[in-house]
Amino acid sequence: MEIPIGRARKARQTFGFDDVALVPGATTLDPKDVDLTCELATLRLDLPLLASAMDAVVDVRSATVLAELGGLGVLHLEGLQCRYEDPDPLLERIAAASAEEAVTVIQQAYQEPLKNHLVERRVAELKEKGAKVAVSPTPIFAQRAAEIIGPGNIDALFILATVTTARHISSRYQSPDFKRLADQVQAPVFVGNCVSYQAALELMRAGADGILVGVGPGAACTTRRVLGIGVPQVTAAADCAAARDDFETETGKRVPIILDGGMRVGGDIAKAIAAGADAVMIGSPLAAAEEAPGRGYHWGMATSHMGLPRGTRIHVGTSGPMKQILLGPAKRDDGTLNLFGALRLSMSCCGAKNIREMQQAEIVVAPAMPTEGKALQRAQGVGGTR
Amino acid sequence: MEIPIGRARKARQTFGFDDVALVPGATTLDPKDVDLTCELATLRLDLPLLASAMDAVVDVRSATVLAELGGLGVLHLEGLQCRYEDPDPLLERIAAASAEEAVTVIQQAYQEPLKNHLVERRVAELKEKGAKVAVSPTPIFAQRAAEIIGPGNIDALFILATVTTARHISSRYQSPDFKRLADQVQAPVFVGNCVSYQAALELMRAGADGILVGVGPGAACTTRRVLGIGVPQVTAAADCAAARDDFETETGKRVPIILDGGMRVGGDIAKAIAAGADAVMIGSPLAAAEEAPGRGYHWGMATSHMGLPRGTRIHVGTSGPMKQILLGPAKRDDGTLNLFGALRLSMSCCGAKNIREMQQAEIVVAPAMPTEGKALQRAQGVGGTR
Amino acid sequence: MEIPIGRARKARQTFGFDDVALVPGATTLDPKDVDLTCELATLRLDLPLLASAMDAVVDVRSATVLAELGGLGVLHLEGLQCRYEDPDPLLERIAAASAEEAVTVIQQAYQEPLKNHLVERRVAELKEKGAKVAVSPTPIFAQRAAEIIGPGNIDALFILATVTTARHISSRYQSPDFKRLADQVQAPVFVGNCVSYQAALELMRAGADGILVGVGPGAACTTRRVLGIGVPQVTAAADCAAARDDFETETGKRVPIILDGGMRVGGDIAKAIAAGADAVMIGSPLAAAEEAPGRGYHWGMATSHMGLPRGTRIHVGTSGPMKQILLGPAKRDDGTLNLFGALRLSMSCCGAKNIREMQQAEIVVAPAMPTEGKALQRAQGVGGTR
Amino acid sequence: MEIPIGRARKARQTFGFDDVALVPGATTLDPKDVDLTCELATLRLDLPLLASAMDAVVDVRSATVLAELGGLGVLHLEGLQCRYEDPDPLLERIAAASAEEAVTVIQQAYQEPLKNHLVERRVAELKEKGAKVAVSPTPIFAQRAAEIIGPGNIDALFILATVTTARHISSRYQSPDFKRLADQVQAPVFVGNCVSYQAALELMRAGADGILVGVGPGAACTTRRVLGIGVPQVTAAADCAAARDDFETETGKRVPIILDGGMRVGGDIAKAIAAGADAVMIGSPLAAAEEAPGRGYHWGMATSHMGLPRGTRIHVGTSGPMKQILLGPAKRDDGTLNLFGALRLSMSCCGAKNIREMQQAEIVVAPAMPTEGKALQRAQGVGGTR
Description:
The structure is a homotetramer. By secondary structure, the first copy, chain A, is α/β, with parallel strands linked by helices. Chain A has one domain: Aldolase class I (TIM Barrel, Alpha-Beta Barrel), CATH 3.20.20.70. Chain A is built from 15 helices and 18 strands. In chain A, the strands form five sheets. In chain A, strands 7-8-9-10-12-13-14-15 form an eight-stranded parallel beta barrel, surrounded by five helices. A two-stranded antiparallel sheet of chain A has the order 1-2. In chain A, strand 1 and strand 2 form a beta hairpin. The termini of chain A are far apart. Chains in contact: A-B, A-D, B-C, C-D. Strand 2 of chain A pairs parallel with strand 18 of chain D, so a sheet runs across the interface.
């Protein structure tokens, strides 16, 4: 449905998590009978969860914990972990910075050059821990990264930038060849981010084994403000899921859609799957884990850009161990704990036995109700502690 | 009207109380000539009012007061009243808890096992007071509860869960048979909650004598945030009322629709009836009564869930005796007192002689006006007392 | 355009002042060439302005000032002015009350019985001052009021209630006969309030010489919250203007539409006229005049209802003499001063020479911009004085 | 798409910056390959940037800096610069005024009469600095200003008022003849402001060489509140761009559209171009430059109106040198620094090589996301400095 926004100019209406809600099914299930496993190319996960390739979320330690819980942490190969032998002092400095100096401190920390031997070492450390190994370079670094990694050492390669297309044009460098990279590392290649049907379809045709969907939605992301660019996640998920389905019809290959960013609570994850995602990639909710490297803070990787930072540092606090965040039990009622217990219960209310059935759940347009957030505010206002 | 929310994906637009307003009729009535009585299966009430089966709202004492005023209190059979001989110390503890520890205190209080003899005793106490007896088990406990209650001791049985369908599937237990339960207790069986036409119709076909409508709207409810599930109440009421009307056409039996949750002021109740409800079930506005067990606090029954609390404790204060809340006189102008005097006046302005005529009142889409709330804020800001 | 709000249920979308904006014309005028005069039945005013029949706005003194400036003050015949020989102490008490006790103080003040000799005296005082005399009883008191007033003593009679219809049904009393009343007082009879095409048309057919339009919009009004009733003013104006135009086509008689309530700034008045109103009736902006009886406060007449107050007391402050509020010069930039200088300039930008042309100005749907209010907040935040 | 807003009354839905977002392209570009130059009549600029003809933004010094950076500052010929030999003490006084007295201080400052020799001198000073000379009179002063300026001394004449039409009617004075003025000063004449297709087209037909688009959107503008008039900028840009395209088809002459006002961050500028603008005119973001005359404050020129001020003084602070605001590097992540670095990156994500291609970028309707602003608020809340 295109709406005229001016003479001779139309625009589609788009929708985000706060614009929609799920309708309980006419059938309901016992939550114990719900299956949360998901298949992403050759990967099989117990939870449809990837942790963002962000320095406040994933290091070797948190990736190992995530793997034990059934998810997958993606280590950023151009982050602090591959710039410093010991990134802890830097992480401390970022956490200790005042709000005013945070961006500058982050910009400086990322000035330290990337070190090939650290890329190699982090991959080795992950492999050693027995966790599934997933790492992420940007498109420009992808070819070099694949060579450093070598064949058979990782389980998945994520080639990520704010916006990635199969038709990037530069007078300075060449775009990566996804199929060749997959051959080199002998693992599926996930590519992102994109938000439109056309861009997703072209990435699939160019050989991507999975697609990351999301431009501008994250809690620590200011892309929409700085660049004006972004598509709300429910529409982005539905559009790219349509590309997945059309591509599957066309070729028989199912390229999974991973919705990346903007999910804060269990309800958002349920909506993401219902909108068509095969899995979700989340950052800020996991940065609040005791095992997360961020020490109660979270920042976007684009925050470090020297000329035009497009992310910010946010305070997320520490809400408990990763296990409690993902699987409970929740001691809080604000939806930030037991994210996948919530997904399980939500699916049972929608009568969805598994992820594929949840992708058919009924969605309604229902702007976030005032009471939704106010109940919590009122509750918290009483004791005044938080 | 389905709106495209993404490629190959549509969603209906839905509406809540704050999205609509009522249009005065071309005929108006003297408020004294308005009839507020309602019929719910075999029950006849002077007011179209049920009090929520929540521990902060209904105990034997408040149910008795509600009955005297013309409404009906529903006692939760799995709440504190049936777990403790004397629940007062627990209610005190919940009211005294800090905002931070409230959920934990509630979770602990509900760990005490349910006691069959207390179920029996509360039913007997209600009967003794001469009040209409309405009690509520969850679906899993319903069969056992009916056996404890026995035949002829109650006036209505409410089988309630967050989402209830006629087609619940579990590998662990069996869904209750509504008709058999009604026979056992010799009283009508009300079932809920649901929000869609299909689910309501199927519950009617499965033998429900009344339907509770509402998933996620309550002031102390965080279902929409935690699970992503919920349908705004005006649309839910209209959808389920359509099921009621179609079922009546089909079978000749009128199964009343009780809109449950999300109403805070008189205007919300008027909108609920206009949207198609036969009666309303309210919680937080009654928790503020002097006779309510909540001591100025209110919490959802799902708050006590150990793994995934889906409600919160809110401070509602104490605004006056139950009689003043329901029938006035109001000494405040914020719509929270004299709820049914307000309904009466609203119906007179809409030219509706009775509930059935009010169900035809004209509704318009009219987002809550800024001045609506601001007038009160401004007023309250001056003296600063509240 | 009716929108489905639920199965088998539709509702029209409605619009208020904050939802729309005016488009400058393709022709513009010199503001000096704009004519603001208006004709309301047999009345001709220099400004299309009536002051609300509210005790904080109109007494003999402020009505006289309003008449000198080109507007018309309407004195409420059932307000404090006709209950007390000297209402000043009561007005003082209301202004001095704390926010918490304000409603109670107002309720008590209006317990004093109405006095026929004071009705007579206030009419005489107004006449003596040479001002146009406009007074307002409620429908129940209208017949008795007309007898007290007698023939030839007033210029206009306003019969006002929250909602007035030509088909009011009561088992206790009879509705007033507008034509007979007009004959008795020998002056046009204005009737209100209504908000729908049908109700307006029927009031015209029943003999009303002018129609007051507005249910629930006022700054001191809580009707929408308490009763759920109200139609946003832009839609109400357009609907009732259509009734006016159809009635004029049908009978040749033009019954003017006076939009009553909800206007706070010059822009709102311009939108009211553009939506179809022949004149506006405003309250709270005039209660802030030095000559207003409210002493910096304003309250709805329905605030005094003992059982169900449907208005509140708001603090409006004192912003200057009535002349400055209506005609400037403005020393503030928030739109609350020089209301009719603003209307004149707005009309010149829309290329409208007079009120009738302004009723054709182009309206767009344009939700109030964040910057609109924020500019002022930011400005005021700097010095912190206000 | 016209929406019924009342019986027999329709209105178009309009859109502003916060209502829309841009969709990344299916092709992306290396930002280094993006061309930001723009052509405005005979002017060629390195950046599509004009600085508002406002006293807090443009004086000889800041215009010179702007020219060096590739933009164009427009000096207001009726501002303080042409009323006072030395405007510094006045600018100091305005900056030092309390929020309460700011409007009065501004009104007084502009009471000093305009001086012809100062008009002449400012033009000479600009020319001397080697900067492109752009100056702005109001329509009434335009003819006299052209005579003072003389032929060949300026590069562009901007004739600006809140609303300007080709068919202004006044019984007191005559509208300016754009073609004659262009001949007199031997430079292109830019005219504004307008917001509709019809008004823009008529100004083009009347000889305007460029059109300024925007009524009511600016940060320091209260036109929408005071007059009720205004069209959100995305719709205004699209409508006037359609007039430009139709006029070009009709005559072969391309009259550029400059979107004036309401842009605060890089994303807004990107949306302005995507909506059809050839360049932008911005005020408040530049008033925060170290070189700006406003000393951390900004005010609308209409603030000085004695009878009806329609602007306000806002605090913008000082965020860095003009170069950093326009071209970075940004040390903040809120989108207010490196505005044109942001535009370059945004264009690269949309696959737009130049301004003309960016005018075809895909726009979606996507209300500003809560997280968009909240991320920053949260970040800033931590250290508490700002």
